[in-house]
Structures are given as C-alpha cells and as structure tokens.
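Section 3.1: Structural characterization of target chains.
Under the original work plan, the team committed to producing a structural model for every single-chain target entering the pipeline before any wet-lab resources were allocated. The record below documents one such target. The sequence was received from the expression subgroup and is listed exactly as submitted; it comprises 310 residues.
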Amino acid sequence: MKKAISAQGTKMFLENPDAAPIATGLLMAGSVSTPCVVTFDNVTKMANGEPLYITGSGWPSIDDQEWVIQNLDKTAKTASLANSDTSKETATWNAAASYTLNAFADVCAQSYQINQNPATTIDTTTLCDSEKTSLVGFRDPGTLTFDFFIDPTDPDYLALHDAYDDGEERMFELIYKNGAVRTLPVIVQSINETGGVDQAVHGSATLKITGSPILTQPGSTTPPVYALTVDVAPASGVAPLSVTATMAETNGTASQFQIDWGDTTAIDTVTGSLTKTHDYAAAGSYTAHVTPTVNSSVLAPVAANAVTVS
C-alpha cells in the first residue's frame, strides 16, 4: 500500500550524532512500570517527540538505547519513554544514570512520501503434503522519500551525506503544523541531486524505515500537576527498626503506590491507604522511593527522607 502525504507546514529533521548534543544530564529516578517514567535534572531544552539516549541506569531494558519522550511535564521534570517496559527490573536505580539529546539537521524538505508494503505470503506446500500451507512474513516498515532544495555547502546537507556514508541508524522527526511529532528510526539509502540555481541544488533522499514510527500528539491545556511527598518515621534508630511511610497528595489521588524501601526487599504495593509500615533488619542508610499511579498513568518515583539504622 502506498501512502503519499503533503509536507505543507511540516518540518523534517535527521538526527546528527556527530554534532554537539542539544542537552546532556542526569536522570534522577525511573519507575518500574510500562511505560517507564523518568525524572530529569533539567528539561529546559526538551520537547515531546524527541529521542533520548539513556545509559548507566543499571536497567538493561532501557540502557544504551534511544527512547522517544512523551507526556513531558516541565514542572515536575518528568516524562514517559514511549514503548518502554521496566516492569521486571529489580535492581536499584543508579544515581549515575545519564541522558543525551542529540542535535538534529534540518533536511529542508519540500515534500515527502512514505511507502509501506504489506506482509509477504510464501507458498510452502510440498509434493508430500497436499494440504495448502504458507508462511506470512513481517510487514516491511517501508521507506520515506523527501525532495529538498538546499545550499550544497550547508552543514545540515553535509550531515545528510555523512549519514549516507556511515549507513548507521538515526532517528528522523516529522513535526507537523499542529504540533504533533512522528519519530521513526531510519537509514539513509540514497541521495540524488538534480541541479539547481543560485548556489542551491534540487534533489531527493530515500530513507529505509527500520522500526515502528511513534506518533506524539500535540499538547493540550495542562491540568493541575499531581504532587506527592513521602515522610518515613522514625528517621533513625537501632536495628531492627520499624518505620512507617506516610504519603501526602495534592491535586489528585493515586489508585496505588509501589514502595521500594531501598534495602533489596520486595517492592510493596499499597492501595486504599496513605501509610505503610516496614522493618529495616540491618544497619545502614536507606531511602525509600514511592511510585504513584494516577488516572491509570504511572508517574515518576518520589524519594522519601533518608533513614539511618545503627
């Protein structure tokens, strides 16, 4: 099936990992959930639909991969990672977890076309088996072709050629006029120039789509932000120490809380209550993290005060 879409009012950008990144920083926390919600140290240069490279969290399900930002909350400094699943992670979040937001090159597209092909059916009937059998392959993610008109010495055009030369996968963004963003992984397959005028060239480029596109809808009016604080008392004592976590909510009510007590014991799930007791069996310093679920959305974990057990 062939789908042609006008590029009027649409801007297109190709990831440029060779340029200085837009932003780098630390990830303060991550939720054990689907999708994962992370907390940033700074979100001033971030936007929904942008791909983010994560490393060092200690969670194999998200480390050393790129994830598309959605549901960005600049007040709480949190965002969900589209299509991520950290629900089976058991390790403690690493305080050295970091992110990189790579730069993007404007490909100066005038129009574009996405071509997608249906899954292929292969006849596997044999002479020894009269029953009709077949195998159905995976659908081809397709290709994206765009036309451009650009100065051939423009750094963004040179970045497009670099992507073709190295053949590495990059993220491609289509930012629509209404603010929606489609983000998809691509490999630059070909670049063709057809001539131009006044130090500019016409041409086209074809990108092989290598995975599922992610569509991030434009933002709407932001409701009051849910907030949670957690107090664990007593804050110190002799082992074994029994403590109580008390959750205080504003601008909403969580349907459940998941409490990671920070001592490698199993995570507690709390529903219908704002308090939970726990015993710290050994001496040490512990910080509990509470992950609330609000309106069916898993939010970023909130750190409680530290507890010292002697």
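The first strand starts at residue 2 and ends at 5.
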